Amino acid sequence: MATFRQRALDEASMHETGRFFVEEGPVSKYFGQNVLDLDKMRGYMSQQAYEAVLASVKFGAKLDRGVSNEIASGMKAWAMEMGATHYTHLFHPLTDSTAEKHEAFISFKDGKAFEKFNGSALVQQEPDASSFPNGGLRNTFEARGYSAWDPSSPVFVMDGTLCIPSVFVSYTGEALDTKVPNLKSMHALSEAASSVAALFDENVKSVKVNLGIEQEYFLVDESLYNARPDLVLTGRTVIGHTSAKDQQLEDHYFGAIPSRVRAFMKDFETEAYKLGILLQTRHNEVAPNQFECAPVFCEATKAIDQNMMLMIIMQKVAEKHRLKVIFHEKPFDGVNGSGKHCNWSLTTDTGVNLLSPGKTPTKNLQFLSFYASVLRAVHKHHYLLMTSVASLSNSYRLGGNEAPPAVMSVFSGSTLYSVFQAIMNMKDIKESVASSQESIKIVNSIPEIFPDNTDRNRTSPFAFTGNRFEFRAVGSSQNVASAVYVLNSIVAESLNEFKAYVDALELAGEVRSSAVMAVVRRFITESRDIMFEGNGYSKEWEVESGARGLKAVKNVTEAYEVYHEPQTVELFDRLGVLAPNEVEARFEILNETYVKKLQIEARILGDMCLNHVIPAAVKYQNILIENVKGMKDIFGDSFMEYCASEVETLKKISLYINGVSADVESLVEARKKANRIEDIAERAKVYSHEVKDMMEKVRLSADNLEMLIDDEMWPLPKYRELLFF
Ligand code: ADP
Ligand code: MG
Description:
Elements: H1 4-14, H2 27-30, H3 38-41, H4 47-59, H5 65-81, E1 86-91, E2 99-104, E3 106-109, E4 112-115, H6 119-123, E5 124-125, E6 145-149, E7 156-158, E8 161-170, H7 179-197, E9 207-213, E10 215-221, H8 222-226, H9 229-234, H10 259-274, E11 279-284, E12 290-295, E13 298-299, H11 300-320, E14 323-326, E15 342-348, H12 361-380, H13 382-387, H14 392-395, E16 410-411, H15 414-425, H16 437-445, E17 462-464, E18 469-471, H17 481-507, H18 512-526, H19 539-547, H20 556-559, H21 566-575, H22 580-635, H23 640-675, H24 680-708, H25 719-723
This protein binds adenosine-5'-diphosphate and magnesium ion.
């Protein structure tokens, strides 16, 4: 057999284990060597320029032209020492990926070549960005978009290019990326959280968001990957029968890491360390060939930038290993998908983790205030928060009985849950509660919770894990900024309300601790419906969550309508995170992206059926026909006694061939019908129902054919080959 598949299998078997990125000595020796951090910057510019950068990093101060020239020239000097010849602004457009446009340092004047990089090139670049998604925020005649350095993220050198982490905005100033709203949401959250934290310690002036991002991914051999047009074009398999063995034995999770994979991991870790990414954890995940890595948590902007870089590094390093990294949330039907858990916490500039219960009643009261505010935020905006991670690719995973369910809830763990029960059950509670013995007892009774001791509930989309929340519904391919700015914003709103209620009670004469406790109790009681400690995958929870009024994200495009709700628009507007027209632009882009991605999937599915599946099936059908004919020649009328099973198979194959071919036609029709719909949101809805349903039908027949046809003739690498090295 010389099918494409067989050649790919032969090639794959030749791929060897090796190391391609090795550094001498301990990691600490080269950690961060490709990053120009504040410390190094000192050596490349005057004190004045350095202080300007510092002020910009710490307080968001604007850099003036004069000083920016000096900073740029310092950066250029460092970058050239590192072997850089080009520079690029690196930004996060609304595509879940990063964008870059490289410019050479080299320049000519009076016939002489020299390296040039001035302040204006650092502070602002003008990529011809007319083809980035903008949701109507730019007309093509005013297509300019600006990228501008975000000094809170240090520049670095990668592959001979000075990379400048940037924001991306339209000519008229609207955000065209995920970074701008995220930075704004962190500002809003810092203000709100500091005002609440200051109730307990007036020294608190700012609060920062921390993120620890766990990245799950699949690895597939490069040759096998290239023999699957669907993986190449969409990141997932649109057809493919499940493997006889996949994850049922649960032997992959935390198992020994295969040597080829371990070599790959060590290599990408080395490259990540050079960029200052503090990777700490690596292990096998549940599905075969599925893995996870996680860095130590850090400040949110940096964590997000680093995660985006990490995804790029992993893909680059994988090339050397003849592997492909698959970040798609559900590349293979029937086995677990991949997520990107976001561990989220808040710390004050005085160094206190606001989500960590402490040893003193004051610390615990503060902890309760923040916890209750998060509960209220997640309850009030549960549908928005779930929608913040909704995408076509993540929809194949969420609610799939292995991933977080499609409805939001908060898991607290038994210790805290009983504290909340006690708070809600406090009898005879008037406003004045903290003075009562009962509430003091409760606050005192909160034990210190060690992260390692928290009970884990893997079925919860949003779980408290001792000193942080773990938002588990985020998808593995996503730029988590769009989920994080939603989370930051809803919590900021809730904390602002918390403060306002406490202020009002204090104004009415209540003592502070008592006022705080009253609002904690109110928030917990009003948000009780979001708390769920049971099995999120169970049928009962589906029913009960509905009865509690919690809305599940059953259909992505319908969920996007939440961006039209006044509650959402006002939230972002009031906090200064996104103006109403920016929210509307995002709504459009989300729908557009959904349609485009599904359109590509539907097309490749059709192509594969017509160009791979049906021809292979017809070939085998002919062999069977020849066989039956021969049998008839030999046995005459009694041939059926000897080849009943071939005839049966022949019938099935013929029916499936007809089925696939008719269904592919209906699929094309469904797409055509949808494409005629002008309104993008309406078109997306039709795609999400009619096109998607038809794709499932096509797949079913194609997968049945895979099971019937001679293995030697099947042209596409099978699940068992893709999933097991
Ligand atoms: P698990 O898979 O058991 O949930 P991992 O070790 O894979 O845990 O990942 C946990 C992530 O949470 C790491 O990135 C870690 O640094 C991060 N993390 C730990 N403490 C905090 C915290 N207080 N705030 C934010 N992230 C945290
Ligand atoms: Mg983990």
